[in-house]
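Researcher: I'd like a structural prediction for the single chain below. Treat it as a standalone chain; there are no partners to consider.
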Amino acid sequence: MLAALVASSLSGPAAAASVASRVEWEAPEGCAGALELHARLSQLLGREPETLGKLSRVRGTVVKAASGYRLVLETFERDRRSSRVFEAARCDDLTDAAALALALAIAPEQAGGVGSAAAGAAAGTSDADAARLVPSENADVAESAAGGDGGTAADAGPGAPSARGFAAAQALVEWGALPRVTPGVAVSAGVNVGALSIAAQGALFGAQTSSVAPDQDVEFDLFAGGVRGCWALLGRVQLDSAPRLNACACFEAGRYRGRGLGLTPARQARDLWLAAGAALDLEWPLGPAIGVQLRAEPMLPMLRKQYTINGSDDVHAPDALSARLYLGLILMGG
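Model: Treating it as a single chain, here is the predicted structure.
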């Protein structure tokens, strides 16, 4: 009996240490730390947690945001990574939200009891101070929020990824399609659903000239519009506290024009421009809904024409491969 009592007294701290070692928690100074999170989780469960249930690892990161504080709660189940993003005026409310989400993941069959415990713990919390879930990708961890009369827990289980609209404006440089390196501007708008984003885009390039004789030039210009689809390679939550790297495929159509300046007779040619390409797109957050966007985009022209004067004098032809570099701002909707 004595041996059993000793083993029991040792197994509790060992199990708690095992759980604590698999929970990473980072928060600004003045916010609750990992020990407080563990204590609140134990309070909700009514016991010291011995495992994380189906979860193998948990990482929570609290950062300051425009609305107060933001929590990115990442959970790992075998090879799957999921995340949820919460915002609150007080960082303590985010600790409560994280503890409730973990309690539901560890003991989903006790969801009703956990919800009641959370309600008692959050009594007196106002709507303005409550933690709220902001759009994020699909996850197995249950959503949670605190209500005006106490906390309420959403039903556990997976849900559909949230859609967020976005718009972007960039300056760019292009080389290969026109006679020289050319500046331009581009705009795009689309929707992001989890790791996938789809956008319509348009670009206008500055005119460039090729000299054929003294006071005789040919001016070339290009504008194009198309669609772009991207998949996040890193950073599945768009414009949260971490950068996002996308791999993209794009297609565009437009008008390519050559116009004689000082030539007799002065003529111009307007031709269809078609091109397809791929891109790497990096989005670096500046805040909850704004970030810097940098994109490198090689393009393959599908219609290339040789422009000539006097019937045989070659002036210019687009290269077989052109390239673009974009830098600008991206804004996210709600």
